[in-house]
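User: Quick one: structure for sequence A, then sequence B.

Assistant: Sequence A:
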Amino acid sequence: MRHRGLCYNLATLEMSTMLTHPLPANEPQRLARLHGLGILDTLPQKAFDDISALARLICGTPVALVSLVDQDRQWFKSSVGMQERETPRAVAFCSHAILEPEQVMVVEDLRLDQRFSGNPFVTGHLSARFYAGAPIVTADGFALGTVCVIDQQARTLHPGQLDALQRLASLVTSLLEHESVRIEEARRQHEQLTAMAISGLDLQVYIDTQYVYQHVNDTFLAYWGCTREQIIGRKLAEHVGEEAFRTIIQPQLDKALAGEHSSYTRKTVFPARGARFVEAAMLPVRNARGEITGAVMRAQDVQETRTREAQLQQTVALLEQRTMEQERFIHIISHDLREPINTVNNFTSLLVSDHQQELTPTAQRYLSFVQSGGQRMRLLLDDLLHFVRLGNHIVELRPVEIVRLVDQLLEDLAPLLKRLDGRIECLGQPTVMADETLLHIVLKNLASNGLKFARRGVPPVVRITVEHVDGEHRIHVSDNGIGIAAEHQRDIFDMFKRLHTRTHHEGNGLGLSVCRRIAQLHGGRISVHSVPGEGSRFTLHLTAAPAAAALE
């Protein structure tokens, strides 16, 4: 399922439908802190873009942003999957997220939240459904914005994803505060700026056509640990070394002296700062007659940015490694473990069919234990393999006829229906937008559970119905079985969660976990209503007209 970049038109935002956006109690101080960073309206930076890309990868959403909330707007230092650089603050989800700096704000379905149900991003063609934003909080407690993700499908995030989102927001805070410290240091060092020192943040020099230093700023002197008198009038080659000048600096400087802009990145060992990566730009300088008289070289220290980028790359590499480990796990399940289990099952079947009568009653009982255990292990491996493969499944939404799927279920579950004298009922039902293969798995798991967990002496009946409510299709799978106690209903979707021993009911506790994961892959959810002694009703909630379908 592909997502395109989200976009909007400011002219179409119907501000009258909105609730007035709230303001933090410390709003004046918060704005002063934000403006003091000097980050607003700066150029994109790779470190922030990598954070957005990582947030999108971790949360599986089409859009991820590094958003800063200004007085009347939210401005994006980085945006992945969204073209705009800013939006009005009045329509910003992030203006609500910064009200609670200590936690990630998660809105699983924006349509159901009165704060956002009238938001034009929700009601308009953007059709935003899900939002999660981790506040970017400074050390002195000001929430400046968020690292946030947006989806066009209602969904949830697991605790690991929420924790990762908070860590990325903390990383943004570190980057911003590092820039702030550097700015403050530069301000103290440059009370009187020279003509070349328009910003104390960068190293700046003016070099004439003979490669001689004519002007330098204070930052340059601070990095090199020298005085202006020691630099002015000296040739570059004498200062930086002949080899570095000839192989790295001179080719770029010659371009500038020929009228071109040029740039390069190099690692320089500064006497007062140590080894630092710098990005240098060369710009030609012309006199009033248009003649080139020299070049300005501006070098920016990007060592900390490089360090952060390396950390992000390590994080991405770790995610890739875990993906490879998952693939290896899948291989082990499907090959290395399945083969010995099949061998055990095959030979126990032969023993039962050919030699059971030769065994003592005790040996026959032991053999039955081996046979049932082997069969359970085979089913468990099948379910585990199915569960881990869901993460690599590409969801393909198409109209699905529920009645046709039920016909397949009747074939798949025929032996179980015959053994339990049960039945599955499904009258004419509307089609739903879903991945047919995955929906079949959900219905099969829920129907088989409804048949297995029957009341003693009561033939099991499973009914499958579909209703359209509030813009979603609800697929109900109801049974007349033993039901589930209220205190257990929240836990039944956890992996390997069993409420009964195998003596009474078979299974391995993975089926409902698979159902929940499939619902999440559709951008939906699954719920249960049950009364002990009367039966259960499981409901799969799917968007009736998924936004993803409109993006195709």
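Sequence B:
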Amino acid sequence: MAGLIAIVVLGSGALDTARRIQASFPDSRVHGLASRVSADVAYEDFGVHLRELYVAGAPIVALCSAGIVIRALASCLTDKGVEPPVLALAQDGSAVVPLLGGMRSVNVLAREIGAALRVTPAITTSGEVRFGQCLLAPPEGYALPDIEQGKRFVSDLLAGETTRIEGRAPWLDQAPLPRADDARLAVRITPFAAGDEHSLVIHPRCVLAWIEDASAADDIAGRVRLAMREHGLAPLALAALTAPASHMASEALADAARALDVPLRFCDAAPFDAGPARGIALHVHDVPIDARSIGRARGTLTVIGLGPGSAELMTPAARNALLAAQDVLGYETYVRMAGPFRDDQRVHMTDNREELQRARHAFELANEGRRVVVVSSGDPGVFAMAAAVLEALDEGRLEHPEWRAVKLAIVPGVSASLATAARAGAPLGHDFCVLSLSDNLKPWSVIEKRIAHAGEADLVMAFYNPLSKARPWQFDRAIEIVKRYRDADTPVVLGRDIGRPAETLRIVTLGELKGELVDMRTMVIVGSSTTRVVGDWVYTPRWHA
């Protein structure tokens, strides 16, 4: 089944059934209405969320009435050939109804869910009811090139015609198809571009293409298509592009794989006898190819920010990276915030002070071709793991040049300073700076100098890591410096655990501020000379005198 299965629930009454289904499908997440249920993925609007999943091609298992699903997706229904599997289930699991995705094995998914719940799915597809198989939805590793021809073929069988099987189709061996050796109709399993009005052609994805030299900036996808055509091979028979590992960072190869809609794998040598040619070599296997068994993919390392702590404040891009990850690394507290995880995902939790070791480990995993995510709280680029990952890459440029081929991405998150400012109003409405009071990685003298410069510049100051047991006096010293440049009635925002269940927000004046009011989990925002309080809100005007 392509894509992560989205099990969508509207309330807690369906959660038990959803978890039973999830136990049978590692590639699934439970999506719950944020105001009613705590789930793996929270959403605010059922219709909008369902349409987003549908457009993204995610298989949808909705635990609600079929009518609700139909009305939610009605505006999206255009091309039957590309719609993902969509099923409606009774909340208690007593009914399984496939609705959409007949061409994408929805009935197969319905049977699997039915087996997990011990109920018989309500399958109504004529051909499948009659023959026990959906001929228009071949299994993974096979592709149907002409859906309209396929529909006519099935109609002829339902009208009384017989058929014969040409080629290897093991999933049809036991199917009760009306067969005859001299049948006019034929199911033809072939990688070649051949067919007629009496044939249902199905292409096994059994062709590998080896791209010896990807350095040229020409049209690789076009050259592969031409090579396939010259050998009489159907485009849908292509299983994967393969190339030397030295070309792993080639954007031209990545573009070609996307254009051809096939996986891209890298090998130290050609996975078949490609001969002396330096262009494109093709190899036709006897059976469909599992591309994952060939070489390795280009590894990815994505550094994400979880936001301040609540699921609602995690960005969709960060959530999608977590869903796609094979390995998740981070400080134990943050990794637990990122869960729950599937059984097939590996979790690596370390101490908060092991940032460079964690970053190096992430590159080692990604270099194996794995999809790796490193998690931070807040934004990964603000006193967090993005800088550590880039530092590891920089330091390893001589000893580990292969790390440069890893596809690196930094996904932003909502930082603690921004989350606290939003709760308070708009204290960062004008120029501001962000400072860490931790002297673990820089001398205290540098911190003092920067505080003084920020105070003289009349910037709003957001302080991270204000106080710890190992640094009991620095915060009061920092505030002494600030007081040289600010009046005692300057507003100060104290946000502790913002975005988490125990969050607290307090507004005090600079004159009232002291170390006993803060700890390491407190974000401190000290206003500028223009910051003011209106009711319960704090803001800094966008103008400055």
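The chain has a mean pLDDT of 91. Residues 63 and 149 are 34 Å apart (CA to CA).

User: Thanks, that's what I needed.
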